[in-house]
Amino acid sequence: MAGEPQFDRTDLRLLAEIQQHGRATNAELAARVNLSPSACLRRVQRLESEGVIAGYGARLEPRRIGLGLQAFVRVQLEKHDQHAIGVFADSVVEWDEVVACHALTGDMDYLLHIYVRDLEHFSSFLLDKLLNAAGVADVNSSFVLRTVKDFRALPLSQLE
Q: Which candidate, 64, 89, 68, 69, places its Cα nearest to that of 77?
């Protein structure tokens, strides 16, 4: 596809290091990928300007900050016209409880990833926000019992 960035092995190693060690200094990154600090900085700046590196941030432990319940909620809309989809999407963007929302193929239209304090908070979210949202026909909720894998880094080995 035209306009897509091209990556060499060093770019992929650099991206892997940044995903694993986002707080590493430029000198540390350069040493890990066998580049000079100036060459490393130029590559990182290029990857940032191309939008490959979308941003930086800390990963928080949800339970340690009081968000002890995690749920996945599948949502089906009544209508699928552009207006109905836009109204629902606008609502989702405003809900702090929703950390991710994906449009799906299949029998449900959206998958919401939700973090809340507890079941009471989830109930309030569901009854006061989600079920009151215009155009929602059906929801189906699943609560996370245990997380087996939660590694947010992208699988760069597939690009080599």
A: 89
Q: How many residues does the chain have?
A: 160
d(CA 139, CA 109): 10
Report the C-alpha gap between 102 and 93 in whole angstroms: 12
Q: Which helix (H) or strand (E) holds 87?
A: helix 82-94
Cα separation of 11 and 16, whole Å? 9
Q: How far apart are the first and last CA of the chain?
A: 17
Question: Would you give the distance in Å from CA 121 to the centre of its chain?
Answer: 22
Q: What is the pLDDT of residues 38-52, one digit of tens each?
A: 999 999 999 999 999
Q: Where are the beta strands (DSSP E) in 58-107?
A: 69-77, 98-103
- Whole-angstrom CA distances from 46 to 15, 34, 38, 145 are 12, 18, 12, 41
pTM, 2 dp: 0.86
